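Re: [ENG-882] Designed sequences occasionally contain unexpected residues at chain ends

Forwarding the minimal case from QA. C-alpha cells:
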C-alpha cells in the first residue's frame, strides 16, 4: 500500500496503490471513487482487489484543485460524457498498464 502521484495531461493526482503479495505480473484495476471522493472505504476496496490478486490504484479525482472546483468540473464532464475527468481516468489506466508488475 502506497500513496503515489500520477501525472495526467491536466494536472497531478494523488492516488492509493495496492499490490498483491507474490510475483507478478498481475492484472490491474482502477478503482473510481464516488461523489464523496477518496475515503477509507475506497482504500478498503482497493485493498480487497489486491487481496484477490490485482494491482489496484484508486486515484483521488478531486485532489488537484479543491473539492468544490473538482466536483463542478467532474459533474460537467459527466454530463458531456467527455472532458478532463475522463482523460484523467484514462491517464491513470495508462500509468497502471505501464507498470512492470
Amino acid at each position: 500500500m502506497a500513496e503515489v502521484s500520477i501525472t495526467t495531461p491536466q494536472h497531478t493526482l494523488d492516488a492509493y496503490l495496492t499490490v498483491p503479495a507474490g510475483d507478478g505480473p498481475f492484472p490491474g484495476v482502477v478503482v473510481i471513487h464516488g461523489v464523496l471522493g477518496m475515503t477509507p472505504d475506497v482504500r478498503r476496496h482497493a485493498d480487497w482487489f489486491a487481496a484477490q490478486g490485482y494491482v489496484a490504484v484508486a486515484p483521488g479525482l478531486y485532489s488537484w484543485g479543491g473539492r468544490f472546483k473538482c466536483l463542478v468540473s467532474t459533474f460537467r464532464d459527466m454530463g458531456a460524457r467527455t472532458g478532463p475527468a475522463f482523460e484523467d481516468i484514462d491517464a491513470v489506466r495508462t500509468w497502471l498498464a505501464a507498470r512492470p508488475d
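QA comment: On inspection the terminal residues look reasonable. The first strand starts at residue 2 and ends at 7. Proposing we downgrade this to a documentation issue.
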